[in-house]
UniProtKB/TrEMBL annotation, chain A:
Location (main, coarse): membrane
Protein name in the entry: Phosphate transport system permease protein
Cellular component aspect of the GO annotation: plasma membrane
Localization per Swiss-Prot or TrEMBL: Cell inner membrane; Cell membrane
Family the entry assigns: Belongs to the binding-protein-dependent transport system permease family. CysTW subfamily.
Residue span, ABC transmembrane type-1 domain: 230-446
UniProtKB/TrEMBL annotation, chain B:
SUPFAM superfamilies, per the entry: P-loop containing nucleoside triphosphate hydrolases
Source organism phylogeny: Bacteria, Pseudomonadati, Pseudomonadota, Alphaproteobacteria, Hyphomicrobiales
Biological process, per Gene Ontology: phosphate ion transmembrane transport
NCBIfam families cross-referenced by the UniProt entry: 3a0107s01c2
GO terms, molecular function: ATP binding; ATP hydrolysis activity; phosphate transmembrane transporter activity
Tagged with keyword ATP-binding: yes
Stretches the record annotates as Disordered: 1-50
GO CC annotations, alphabetized: membrane
Species of provenance: Salinarimonas ramus
ATP-binding is among the record's keywords: yes
One Pfam family cited in the UniProt record for this chain: ABC_tran
InterPro entries: AAA+_ATPase, ABC_transporter-like_ATP-bd, ABC_transporter-like_CS, P-loop_NTPase, PstB-like
Protein name (Swiss-Prot/TrEMBL): Phosphate import ATP-binding protein PstB
SMART domains in the cross-refs: AAA
Superkingdom of origin: Bacteria
Length: 458, 298
């Protein structure tokens, strides 16, 4: 909390520094009777940055290393017999000391060395906080003075501010990239641990999914077959695409080619609302309405359809994906140049011939790209399947029966009372990595196709 | 360019133009001795009109883009429509095969007769009309298909070929007429978009020829092409004149002078002056025509 307040103070100070810098630059311009290189605001911004960046850097340093330094100082002062204790017990001692220092209290009578260490910890923490404030103030002041002294009409404040902004932008993109890398690394690490229990061959080619609750290290590799889950995933995604592709494409064709502008302005957002419905809502829609309805409809024609089946999950997921396909395809169809349509209409083709023979073929690569993006969406979808697919990880071809998917199994393996070191939960990482590679591959393929399509007209 | 031209136009332009037109055409008609309103100032090479328009007005929403155009397009000749940008020449061209129908909010009034038949009549199938009146656009717009498929597109949708061999004949004949056959005969399967700009435009002309139209409309067909490709297209237009009636919109006055027999000068939605190309370019009667062709505006 302390740090947060300090950061807020620094930000306010930056506001004042901006004013100082602006005024100082104006004065400098007047006194030297020359034109400023940049706008006064740029000088103000530069001064504010010179104050803010060192101060925030000091805060960051303390936040990262302050606690570690204090701890090691306290630990260094502990009696040697305590320091000789095993790691786990030493950790307990440190926790007791911290509890004492914060006034929280500990179980049992605290030992003398514990009390003295707690006292030491408290003083050190106070010193650290004071040092933090002093450090921030010093850094801010130094930056402010330095920046104000640099101000002169020839200083290229605009270029410097823009350089800082550029670094900020790079920093933000780096965060996104590093996050992806971090996720992949953690997935890979845990997956490798899983493969130390279960051989990759058994995992990727096993046809039975039935992980038993075995203890760690017993070497049991039974029932970790990926295939039933992958089959369920593919089956549901295929049903979803069978529903969403024709409907979505026809919506797109109508919206892009036939709909009058007024209707389009109303209908397009309405369709896109479908994309805004939370998937859990689709899930219980599937469970309570779509499933029983499909089951009833099946009974009418003599088909035995379970209420929670691959069909239910697939159909509802297809409905969820419709706006995804229609919206992307609509954009792609409208991107087909008007001259292409004119050429066809000018030859005496009807509107529908033009769409079938010229517009759609021209838009096809883009539509395939949209399709692949939608498939990767369907494969990664979880909530609908959790509720509506019936969760039966069995390798069977009937879409009217219950199935389970990779995503559902991850949820199942990672919820409840679990041991994170056992293969039962580690398998979730292997599944997650498989899913990641699968959707990544589809996305890359889709982007490649979409890019190729763009080259055609530009 | 129209922004430059507009201030020079007095606010009472439609009225003035109206009088200018009658002033211009009446003496010619009288001199020609024919007396009928269909008479053309062509003197010796007078021909049957292919298309006759009467009081054609075009509205985009509530604004009027063409103010009552009255003219005739002679058969088997090249008629050039010239004028500054935004003067309505392309709009007029697009009336002739009803391409304006595809523009949202566009409305056409008046009469356009082709071989004596009203093309805006409700009983007329616009699809068949467009097969009779082919169009070539400003920018070459081959379909993203093979060269063969580009030409075969029209004959296919109109069912002109009964067999594969017949279709191949049509493709070959059209490409030959468009002067493209020798350049592409070995690569008919390659995409039409891979040709050069001039070749693409000749491909589009061949595509239009393939459905055996009677009239070919060309909307600035050379504006995206280099001088050599332009020269080839102009030669081609001159050859095509034997079999087709051609209407061409162009910004290049030299082009109009080179390829056309009749020229119509449009200005701010009015047909200011029309007549033999030679006469328009050597002896224009209207001040605005003279200013335009001498490069004073536009």
């Amino acid at each position: 909390m302390n740090t947060v307040w300090l950061a807020i103070v620094v930000l306010v100070a930056m506001g004042f520094a901006y004013q100082f810098g602006t005024q100082a630059s104006r004065r400098a311009a007047v006194s030297s009777a020359t034109k400023l290189h940049s706008l006064p605001g740029h000088y103000g911004m530069l001064v504010a940055l010179w104050l803010g960046i060192p101060a925030l850097a000091v805060i960051l340093l303390f936040a990262l290393f302050g606690d570690t330094v204090v701890r090691s100082l306290v630990m260094g002062a502990l009696p040697p017999d305590i320091l000789a204790l095993p790691q786990a017990e030493l950790l307990t001692v440190m926790q007791r000391i911290q509890a004492l220092a914060s006034g929280f209290g500990v179980l049992g009578e605290p030992a003398a060395y514990e009390l003295s260490a707690a006292e030491r910890l408290r003083t050190l923490q106070t010193t650290r906080d004071l040092a933090l404030v002093a450090g921030v103030a010093a850094a801010a002041a130094a930056g402010l003075v330095f920046a104000l002294r640099r101000i002169s009409p020839s200083l290229r404040a605009r270029n410097e501010v823009e350089a800082v902004v550029k670094i900020l932008l790079i920093g933000c993109s780096t965060v996104a990239i590093l996050t992806t890398v971090g996720i992949v690394m953690s997935l890979v690490g845990e997956t490798l641990r899983f493969f130390s229990y279960v051989s990759p061959v058994d995992f990727f080619f096993g046809t039975v999914w039935n992980p038993r609750f075995v203890t760690v290290g017993s070497g049991s590799a039974d029932g970790y077959g990926l295939l039933p889950l992958l089959w369920g995933t593919v089956l549901i995604a295929a049903i979803a695409m069978l529903v969403s592709l024709p409907v979505g494409l026809m919506i797109a064709i109508y919206m892009a080619e036939y709909a009058p502008p007024k209707l389009r302005a109303v209908a397009k957002p309405l369709i896109e609302i479908l994309a805004g419905v939370p998937t859990i809502v689709y899930g219980f829609f599937a469970l309570t309405i779509a499933g029983p309805a499909l089951s009833g409809a099946g009974a009418l024609v003599g088909l035995d359809i379970r209420a929670t089946s691959a069909l239910t999950a697939g159909v509802v997921m297809g409905i969820m994906i419709i706006p995804f396909i229609s919206s992307l395809s609509d954009d792609i169809i409208t991107q087909v140049p008007r001259t292409m349509r004119d050429g066809s209409l000018g030859l005496g083709a009807t509107r529908s011939e033009t769409i079938k023979r010229v517009v759609l073929p021209a838009a096809l690569p883009g539509i395939v790209g949209a399709f692949l993006l939608a498939v990767s969406r369907a494969i990664g979808e979880t909530m609908i399947v959790v509720l509506a697919a019936g969760n039966a990880p069995v390798l069977q071809p009937n879409p009217f029966e219950s199935v389970s998917t990779v995503t559902v199994t991850i949820v199942k393996q990672l919820t409840g009372d679990i041991d994170f070191a056992s293969p039962q939960s580690l398998v979730a990482f292997a599944l997650g990595l498989t899913l990641f590679v699968l959707t990544l591959g589809l996305n890359v393929l889709a982007l490649y196709i979409v890019r190729k399509y763009r080259e055609q007209y530009e | 360019m129209s922004a430059q031209a507009e201030p020079k136009q007095p606010p009472s332009s439609p009225v003035e133009t109206g009088t200018a037109m009658t002033d211009l055409t009446k003496p010619v008609v009288a001199a020609d001795g024919a007396g009928a309103p269909s008479a053309q100032p062509h003197g010796a090479n007078r021909v049957e009109p292919k298309v006759t328009t009467t009081d054609v007005k075009v509205f985009y929403g509530s604004s009027e883009a063409l103010h009552g155009i009255q003219t005739e397009i002679p058969a088997n000749q090249v008629t050039a429509l010239i004028g500054p940008s935004g003067c309505g020449k392309s709009t007029f061209l697009r009336c002739l095969n009803r391409m304006n129908d595809t523009i949202e909010g566009a409305r056409v009034t008046g009469k356009i007769l082709m071989d004596g038949e009203d093309i805006y009549d409700k009983s007329l199938d616009v699809v068949l009309l467009r097969a009779r009146v082919g169009m070539v656009f400003q920018k070459p717009n081959p379909f993203p298909k093979s060269i063969f498929e580009n030409i075969a597109y029209g004959p296919r949708i109109h069912g002109l070929a009964k067999s594969k061999g017949e279709l191949a004949d049509i493709v070959e004949r059209s490409l030959k007429r468009a002067g493209l056959w020798d350049e592409v005969k070995d690569r008919l399967k390659e995409p039409g978009t891979g040709l050069s700009g001039g070749q693409q435009q000749r491909l589009c002309i061949a595509r239009a020829i393939a459905v055996s139209p009677e009239v070919i409309l060309m909307d600035e067909p050379c504006s995206a092409l280099d001088p050599i490709a332009t020269a080839r297209i102009e030669e081609l237009i001159d050859e095509l004149r034997r079999n087709y009636t051609i209407v061409i919109v162009t910004h290049s006055m030299q082009q109009a002078a080179r390829v056309s027999q009749k020229t119509c000068f449009f200005h701010l939605g009015d047909l200011v002056e029309e007549g033999d190309t030679d006469q328009i370019f050597t002896n224009p009667r209207d001040k605005r025509t003279q200013d335009y062709i001498t490069g004073r505006f536009g």
